[in-house]
Amino acid sequence: MIRKNSGEGNNNISNRMILQKIEKISQFMIFIFGCVAIFIVSLPATNPWQRWRYVIGLLSQPFWFYTAVYNRQPGVFLVSCVFTVSWILGISIRF
Q1: Are 60 and 87 in contact (CB under 8 A)?
Q2: 95 pLDDT exceeds 70?
């Protein structure tokens, strides 16, 4: 019996390629948001940008969660949960 290719193999390959592209975008966004948030944290306390560090840090969290799940890293996932709560707490205090 000859089985016809249902195209499922091609769908799996294209889905994997899409997930890899999303992972690359996530890595880039983690780099950008992380660098900006840490830079703002290092500014003097009187700088008006200080309050925005929490917002920028929180914006990076979806990318951290995606990367942790995609790469099956439970430790990174748990740290991301703690960071998310910390960023939200900072926002609630500063805004």
Answers
A1: no
A2: yes
Q: What is the pLDDT of residue 3?
A: 55
Question: How far apart (Å, rounded) are the C-alpha atoms in residues 30 and 57?
Answer: 9
Asked whether the predicted pLDDT for residue 71 surpasses 70, the reply is: yes
Alpha-carbon gap, residue 7 to 15, rounded angstroms: 12
Instruction: Evaluate whether 42 touches 76 at the Cβ level (below 8 Å).
Output: no
Q: Residue 49 is which amino acid?
A: W
Q: What pLDDT, on the 0 to 100 scale, is given for residue 68?
A: 97
In order, the DSSP letters of the chain are: -PPPP-SHHHHHHHHHHHHHHHHHHHHHHHHHHHHHHHHHHTS-TT-GGGGHHHHHHHHHHHHHHHHHHHTT-HHHHHHHHHHHHHHHHHHHHH-
Q: At what angle do helices 8-41 and 52-70 cross, to 10 degrees?
A: 150
What is the residue extent of each domain of the chain? 8-94
